[in-house]
Amino acid sequence: MVAAAPPVVVAPDREVRVDGRRICIYDGLLPNVEQYVAALSRAAFTRTEIARPETAEYRHWATEIKIDALVRQPIFELTRRAVAGFATDGRGYRPYRAYTNVASYGDMLFTHTDCLPDQHDLTALWYLCERWDVEWGGETVFYDAQEEIACAVRPRPGRLVVFDGRIRHAGRPPHRICYTPRYTMAIKFERVAIA
Fold this sequence. Notes:
It is a single chain. The protein has a single domain (21-193), classed as Jelly Rolls. 11% of the residues lie in helices and 36% in strands. The protein has 3 helices and 11 strands. It has helices at 33-40, 67-70, 74-83, and strands spanning 14-18, 21-26, 46-49, 60-65, 91-103, 122-128, 140-143, 149-153, 160-164, 169-171, 182-193. The strands form 2 sheets. An 8-stranded antiparallel sheet has the order 1-2-9-6-11-5-4-3. A 3-stranded antiparallel sheet has the order 8-7-10, with no helix packed on it. Strand 7 and strand 8 form a beta hairpin. One of its GO terms (molecular function) is dioxygenase activity.
């Protein structure tokens, strides 16, 4: 059996560190974002996603993506190239969950982390929109250990943000003047030994 070639690594357009943990922002990787937006406008979203157990009564809209279907999509190869830049010490990352959230004005989205403090999971977050006005809000905000906003990333068409899942963060819903849904595709990766 021939081993798969390591992916070509893409460099981020911007990198920020929060308490020493990386947040990498990539623009211009996804040329056909409008096709993803069109598909999501027909997707079956259910109000099943929660930020934390204590906020379970405030569920938000999501649609799950099967990993075996995801890895066959061009967007996954782009994601894998960005995530490859986080591989160190003979360890890489394997996807274990993928889903798309949709948020609109009036939705409540809470702060959370995507993994436990002793884990080293990554989250790859795609903003899937054909256009996004800065006045619409919808940023993802990242908090430091003192619960201060250390970084805010605004939606842009086809923008990808890859970050350490231990960083506390929250998606912000769009402002009242925005009639466009805020779609974000999240792909969660766990750290594994590279064979």
